[in-house]
Specification:
The protein is an alpha+beta fold. Helix content is about 20%, strand content about 30%. The chain has 2 domains: about 60 residues, no CATH class; about 280 residues, Carbon-nitrogen hydrolase (Nitrilase/N-carbamoyl-D-aminoacid amidohydrolase), CATH 3.60.110.10. It is globular.
Amino acid sequence: MRSLWTLVGSASSPSPCRTANKHRKPTNIWITFECRITLDFSIEISVANESVTYILLANSVGKMEIPDQRFKVAVVQAAPVAFNREQTLEKIHLLTAKAAREGAQLALFPEAFVSAYPRGLDFGAVVGSRSDEGREEFRRYWESSVDVPGPAVDEMGRVARNNRIYLVIGVVERGGGTLYCSVLFFAPDGTFLGKHRKVMPTGSERLVWGFGDGSTMPVFDTRLGKLGAVICWENYLPLMRAAMYAKGIEIYCAPTADARDSWIASMRHIAVEGRCFVLSCNQFNRRRDFPSDYHPTYGADPDVVLCRGGSCIVDPFGNFLAGPNTEGESVLIAEIDRAQIIRGKFDLDVVGHYARPDIFRLHVDERSKQPVTIDVTDSPGREESSPQDDPKARAHSAE
């Protein structure tokens, strides 16, 4: 890496490029170095086999974000403790710590990991009728879901902070009486960056999940690159993929519940099409991973596999870096080389030189759509109000 820095500080051993003390004028220097950036703005630099520590002055250089070129990521293929939010959070602690010990700087968990993807349930619904038993199943599902923000979100933030890792995780979010399939993003300091609500639940998912709007389709500018998520069969919405490509997504997270061979092929296609790294993450479930009173259409054999996983990590040329794994619970690790993104863009940039905006154009509406907006006439002691909802998650730089 070769960069221009404004440096002020002292060296632990003699170095030809250091400044003598903090009172001297900062010096602009070109150096070739390897560095590790920490949150307190210190940089450990190796120059000519000497260890030199410089302190960046935040008031003079501001917040600095240099994407790492090479780093490890993890895809966590596992089963939650279905319909038990607290025990699932404990499992997230353990699995994230395992990923961090293996050197991962980002960990992705599957769709609806907190607290369940209700595979095989019909919630007692047929055309024209809903059963009391199905309503009770929905109540249990609602009780185990996640308020955003809320205590479970705070706990996941602690997981990210304790392991100094980016955490991307699928949850079932509740908003009033409606559930949403969402993905939450956390920075290594535990900051909750924002969320994406699934815009198109598939098939019977629409019985229990609402629809997100365009206000929660973020791509975050992080030190690992531009990070975002598209959930399960949203990935079969070509226009949504185009919107994410236009935002420059580089680490494309695809938490899913689809374990078909066709899904794995789609992940390779998207990686090539977007010239991005695709992280696909699915649960691996057996019947015994669900409560005893869970009655899916698959029967009661505790060893029957309800979802075989198929998680994988794919590079911008469609090559598997890890997986696909269909054998059991696993933490898949792969090294990302961001230089592969630009190598791929050389001949394919679908929102750049390989686009034809004179023929095809896409308009994306990212305004929040509230079902009810209440305007109160101005009068003494009264203010304009509207139903409370989460603000739009905005992409921003995250340490």
